[in-house]
């Protein structure tokens, strides 16, 4: 396989998301490049791969130019916007407008820690985010690379912090180290299975599952918050055990659906008339089976006392109150979905929670503040008195008890 790294100019790096979801609770994210060294069979990056055997295949990574300076500029603009919102906001909401934001990195069919990228790029991006008092949230299959960066990340963040302060002295360098230690990146390590043999078959050029699990344990020891995500959830029963994640010390575990549509795609890529038995059993054909599989996996995570979803304690200081509530309602909806009997469709989950998550996600901060002041959430179509009460309890009295059963 040949690797071609090209560069392209862009005018902005940071993206703002209109919708928030239960799994990735951030409004802002960035992608440093497109393309990936990984050869995961189920990934769209590889669906359109030009034909070629291992030797003649050419993979292209298209890297954005001037990433660190673009990012610094975008974060500066973001800080000003957040400051303005804070000034306009209601008193009880101001605390949630701290300037810290969770910045998602990667996930646009690329990997931020892809080893084919320039050595210093991830380091500069992470240090720039932390120096600006935000917190990076990395999705990766190469977590061990972050371990290698650890000491340099602390040193570079401290240096940038010191240069940024009026008194460029040792005290400020120390402050910079403290800041870096307090805002270490959150790491979400991606898996499709924890079975090494199977992992080799379907995601050959990424680190083995065992390597990823041991990197999780090492990152946890250094003070990082680390979660695992199974996506797509191939790894049921024979292929993945929730215990592997518990043993590695994951702070929480996420999982995304198993699409029946992956089956024909995998067959085509593998050039097989039929999938091997273990994969065939792991990939369901219908939505109902997929839900059943997720419910089983959820139960397994619970039996290992593993949390699903990022806990509120992590994200609430990095989202506005409105956005925190949008995420919490989405989590509540999915938590209900995973614990209800799929045969009883009409009781599948409380869709009012889903609607609340959606509407809050799209609502402007100013509308939220105004509705809170006028107690007028019930005027919104689909918002019951129960939903309105939950919102007011949280926003005005910091009472989040209705969400406590999540996870
Ligand atoms: S590592 Fe991630 S982005 Fe890269 S091919 Fe695999 S799934 Fe796709």
Please give the structural blueprint.
Elements: E1 2-8, E2 14-16, E3 28-30, E4 33-34, H1 44-47, E5 58-64, H2 67-88, H3 91-94, E6 102-105, H4 120-131, E7 135-140, H5 144-164, H6 170-182, E8 186-191, H7 196-202, H8 209-221, E9 225-230, H9 242-248, E10 252-255, H10 262-270, H11 277-282, H12 287-303, H13 312-315, H14 321-339, H15 351-362, H16 365-374, H17 385-397
Parallel strand pairs: 1-5, 3-6, 6-7, 7-8, 8-9, 9-10
Antiparallel strand pairs: 2-3, 4-5
Iron/sulfur cluster binds at residues 36, 38, 40, 43, 45-46, 109-111, 141, 203, 206.
Can you tag this structure with a few keywords?
407 residues, alpha/beta, TIM Barrel, 7-stranded mixed β-sheet, 17 helices, globular, binds iron/sulfur cluster
Q: Would you write up a description of this structure?
A:
With 407 residues, the chain is of the alpha/beta class. The protein has two domains: 2-313, Aldolase class I (TIM Barrel, Alpha-Beta Barrel), CATH 3.20.20.70; 320-403. It contains 17 helices and ten strands. The chain has helices at 44-47, 67-88, 91-94, 120-131, 144-164, 170-182, 196-202, 209-221, 242-248, 262-270, 277-282, 287-303, 312-315, 321-339, 351-362, 365-374, 385-397; strands at 2-8, 14-16, 28-30, 33-34, 58-64, 102-105, 135-140, 186-191, 225-230, 252-255. The strands form two sheets. Strands 2-3-6-7-8-9-10 form a seven-stranded mixed beta sheet, with helices on one face. The radius of gyration is 22 Å and the shape is globular. The chain binds iron/sulfur cluster.
